[in-house]
Amino acid sequence: GSADALSVARIIAPLAPPADADYRHIAFWKRLRYFCRLYLESSRWLRRIENASAITEFNVPSAPALARHTDQAEALWNGVRTFCALVMVGAWGISTQWQACAAALTLAAICCVLYSVSPSPFKSLTLLMRTLILLSLFSFVVKFGLMVQITDLWQFLLFLFPLLTTMQLLKLQMPKLAGLWGQLIVFMGSFISVTNPPVYDYASFLNDNLGKIIGVGLAWLAFAIISPGSDARKSRRHIRALRRHFVDQLSRRPQHSEHEFESLVYHHISQLSNSQDALARRWLLRWGVVLLNCSHVVWQLREWETRSDPLSQVRDLCISLLRDVMSERGVQQRPLASTLQELQRICDALN
């Protein structure tokens, strides 16, 4: 059944760390309590939604949108590439008055948008080009060699069902060519293009298939001219963003809470999860882990119960001194040395 806060507290109470517990036990306990609070809050909202009527209104607590923290430079570059490719294809179709320009424009737009987030767009576009060429040859043989002799639907289904089954089995048996077989299965229907009544026009068939192939080819050309940024540049931009958000964590009133900053770090790291550059991915992960651990230390200091107001002022002074150490470009050596001296002086004064 559904658990309430009291029953969850009774379940996890035996796991509570004693006063002299190891720091790893304390860290596990805090994460467990945080997860339980999230679980209970989510369960409460799910029950309210399930039991709501048609006129029920909710005041859902606001949450920061992680999708806003994207690589804006890369997104702008992808937008420029897509715009140039579509303008080029559209201008070419208008000037030549080509009837199949719509197919080329559609495929070019899909490729520019779909493969802009791909770790290897040229490999994906080459695979799609192979798929379209093979399907053009295959659909030509099927349409003008087989379908001209088919008069009933059951005859076509008798041909199509074993074909799709065989292609799906080949996809499972050949993992290296699974992408090719998958695209062949997906795009085959649009190439055979069964109509009622059937239309067998060589010119329109070849024109439409040629338009699809040219659309993918022009998208490939757009990626070659306006190539995506390297993973190393993307990693550096994400690292600078993490440093900037960490500097905000050191302010008196940070924009993000401890858990929001943690989600933000994981979001930036996930942006390069499919990267082919292991070094760039590793450096982003290192900076994310280091800054996340530092932020946990800062928030632990903020939650520290001081016995007197002067100690809290000393704590706030120590946190403010750290702001000059970190910037978007990294750790500043001169402020670091002076900050260490000041912190040592404060420690000596407290002792």
From TrEMBL:
GO molecular function: transmembrane transporter activity
Pfam families the UniProt entry points to: FUSC
Superkingdom per UniProt: Bacteria
Keywords of the record: Membrane, Transmembrane, Transmembrane helix
Transmembrane segments: 96-115, 127-147, 153-170, 177-193, 213-230
InterPro entries: PHBA_efflux_AaeB/fusaric-R (IPR006726)
Any one of the GO CC terms: plasma membrane
Protein name according to UniProt: Fusaric acid resistance protein
